[in-house]
Design goal:
about 700 residues; 23 helices; elongated; Beta-Lactamase; 3 domains; TIM Barrel; eight-stranded mixed barrel; alpha/beta; Alpha-Beta Plaits
């Protein structure tokens, strides 16, 4: 009661005191209530916004990482991550494999490590991969998003978003709110009854603004028209509302940017695959209603990799940007031009004729227009560049086929155009599917054959001028239980395309070394060398040198009798790394032969730097050496070049005595071919070796 009496005395005083008290109390309650509401609202809003930012960023990175993970391109994946890791609130960003290995991270030192923290382990242990918020506290939001390629789970994306700036924002808003409330109370006490009416009106306006803001209206402002403290209060409130509006605009802009990154290609600003699929879905529904035909044109630039390798990726990017503009100029308004990635574009044509033949003619006309437009020379940073394209076309009416099936058909047709010589177009033919199915079956059998040990090595003898066997080339053969002996030309290219050449090549190397070691323990075969073909993809493995040395060490083979045959296509890029690997193996005694010499990238400036031991004349020059003056001159030149460089030379594909005589006449001293015997299993090869060594 001691506190009530003074208040009653003040309330019962003059009208000015009563108004001052009432105004002060009202102003204080309103301002503190308003400030508290704003702070609470701002706190909830910013907490939710930071959570959404983390989830959106995780989703965006997961979408952008799919293609890099499928292609096993860790450098591209790191570039994708780095492009989004610029926000100061981002604490960490990483892409994990399903086993917990860090594939990409804004902390470069973490790349390649295995995560071991409890949060990561709990994420990796989840049975159903789905987006989740792992941590959501006052200081951090940790959002995770699974990465899928179709239905295949590739890994996880984790985004750590800090909330330090959020708390600073809230503290600033609180301080301003409290200061404004205190100023309002002080002003209220000093107001006289002469301005009571005006003060009441101004307070009412402020109350109306506060109520509107509380209801979610962000455009209202306090227009008091006063220059006193209450007017200043109104200005401050307006400033706070402007800050809230700016924050809202930033949020909308961020959402728009995220949407742009999710649906548009960053380089060309064309719709990406995700947007294309969405538009194609709508186009198929529209086609089903109208009965009109649509078309997909799958466009791939010819020899684009050569441009990137020879003139740099910047030039490749310039070309892609110019191609996108030319494509936009070739289609109608309402059609879609999209970039899938790399040098692949897809054009979707809608509302073609109902009759399929007429629609096909319309699609072909646009396709040929595109071929012509893309074949016009380009100006790339002041340099002239010629490029062409190959186009595959498939038509659709309604939703008869799935979207992925349509894309697959257009892709197959494009490869048919490539096979037809490039710079042309082809329509999808159902026969293509048969070829693809056969290829898929062959790939399945290849993988199974590798697991079941269906492969073996045949050996073709290499002879000197006297017919003495000096070595053998190890040649891979595949005996399938149903297909029989599968020709190498039928399955070797497929192993290159699918990557099976890596495990298969390692098996060949290990098996050949084991056989070389076995011959080394036999007096009559100890002099033999074994030549092993090494694919470009196999040689470019980071641990290739270690593979070779391990195969030699585990088998006990003499490195001086192992000859690795490389092709000229290996010299297309990164020659310094190639020389380094060859030099390392050379120091251990391993020999090198350049296979199919003269058919590929014959640069003497590189050739003289390679630690080679032998050149191998390609069979295409040997075949007509006795009847074609050009082939004879080429073979003679290769022999002379080898001798001049201090290298041995061997001719492959020798099938007649006349060919051998000519080669001997120009100085070739080593031969391989059916004249001396076909490739045979090791037992037959050893029998032939013994029969040649037996006394006459």
């Amino acid at each position: 009661m001691r506190f009530v009496d003074p208040l009653l005395d003040l309330a019962c005083g003059t009208i000015r005191r009563q108004l001052a008290l009432v105004f002060a109390l009202a102003t204080g309650l309103v301002m503190f209530g308003f400030g508290y509401g704003v702070v609470q609202h701002q706190s909830a809003f910013l907490m939710e916004q930071s959570k959404n930012n983390a989830e959106d960023l995780a989703h965006m990175l997961a979408v952008g990482s799919t293609a890099w993970l499928v292609a096993n391109d860790m450098a591209g994946l790191q570039m994708e991550l780095r492009s989004i890791a610029r926000n100061p609130s981002l604490k960490y960003a990483m892409v994990l494999g399903r086993d917990g290995r860090v594939y990409a991270s804004n902390e470069v030192g973490d790349i390649g490590l295995m995560v071991s923290d409890p949060v990561s382990l709990r994420l990796l242990a989840s049975t159903v991969p789905k987006a989740a918020v792992l941590v959501d506290d006052a200081n951090l939001v940790d959002a995770a998003e699974p990465v899928f390629a179709g239905s295949r789970h590739l890994g996880w994306v984790r985004i750590g978003w800090g909330r330090a700036s959020l708390h600073e924002n809230l503290r600033d808003v609180s301080r301003r709110g409290y200061l404004l409330g205190a100023a309002a109370i002080a002003i209220a006490v000093l107001l006289s009854m002469l301005i009571a009416a005006g003060l009441t009106r101004s307070l009412r306006k402020l109350m109306l603004v506060a109520d509107a803001v509380h209801k979610g209206e962000r455009s209202v402002r306090a227009g008091l028209g006063r220059s006193d403290e209450i007017g200043a209060l109104g200005v401050s409130i307006n400033g706070m509302l402007d800050a809230l509006a700016a924050s809202e605009r930033d949020r909308v802009a961020t959402e728009e940017e995220i949407r742009s990154l999710a649906f548009y290609d960053a380089l060309t600003r064309l719709p990406n695959r995700r947007m294309l699929v969405e538009r194609l879905r709508h186009a198929m529904l529209a086609s089903a209603r109208s009965g009109r035909t649509g078309a997909l044109l799958f466009i791939d630039l010819d020899n684009f990799k050569t441009l990137n390798d020879t003139r740099g990726h910047d030039m490749g990017d310039l070309l892609l940007q110019q191609v996108s503009q030319r494509l936009l100029g070739c289609v109608r308004e309402g059609d879609t031009v999209s970039r899938l990635g790399g040098d692949e574009f897809v054009v979707m044509l809608e509302a073609l004729a109902q009759a399929v033949p007429e629609a096909a003619a319309q699609a072909e006309a646009i396709g040929r227009k595109i071929l012509t437009a893309l074949a016009v020379p380009y100006e790339l940073a002041g340099q002239r560049h010629q490029s062409t394209s190959s186009i595959g076309i498939t038509l659709f009416v309604g939703s008869e086929h799935r979207i992925d099936e349509l894309m697959k058909r257009a892709d197959l047709a494009m490869y048919e155009a490539k096979t037809a010589g490039r710079n042309t177009l082809r329509f999808f033919d159902p026969h293509m599917q048969t070829v693809v199915s056969a290829r898929a079956a062959l790939e399945h059998d290849l993988r199974e054959g590798l697991q079941l040990g269906q492969f073996e090595l045949y050996y073709q003898s290499q002879r000197d001028m006297n017919g003495r066997i000096t070595g053998a080339e190890a040649l891979l053969r595949w005996t399938h239980p149903e297909r029989g002996l599968v020709p190498p030309n039928d399955f070797i290219p497929l192993t290159e395309d699918t990557g099976l050449i890596i495990p298969l090549g390692r098996w060949v190397l290990e098996t050949a070394c084991t056989q070389l070691a076995a011959w080394g323990r036999e007096e009559q075969a100890a002099h033999l060398s074994v030549a092993v073909n090494i694919s470009v993809r196999q040689f470019r493995q980071n641990d290739f040198v270690e593979q070779v040395l391990l195969a030699l060490a585990s088998s006990g083979a003499d490195p001086r009798h192992l000859k690795l045959e490389l092709t000229e296509s290996l010299l297309m890029d990164d020659v310094e790394a190639i020389i380094e690997k060859m030099t390392t193996l050379k120091r251990h005694g391993v020999c090198f032969s350049l296979d199919d010499f003269g058919t590929g990238y014959s640069s003497l400036s590189y050739l003289k730097r390679l630690p080679l031991d032998q050149l191998k004349i390609d069979r295409s020059f040997v075949r007509d050496v006795t009847v074609d003056a050009n082939d004879a001159a080429i073979a003679s030149t290769i022999v002379a070049l080898a001798h001049h460089m201090g290298l041995d030379v061997i001719a492959e594909g020798v099938e007649t005595a006349a060919q051998a005589d000519f080669l001997i006449s120009v100085g070739c001293c080593a031969f391989q071919g059916y004249l001396y015997g076909p490739p045979v299993p090791v037992a037959q090869f050893e029998q032939m070796l013994l029969s040649l060594q037996a006394p006459a």
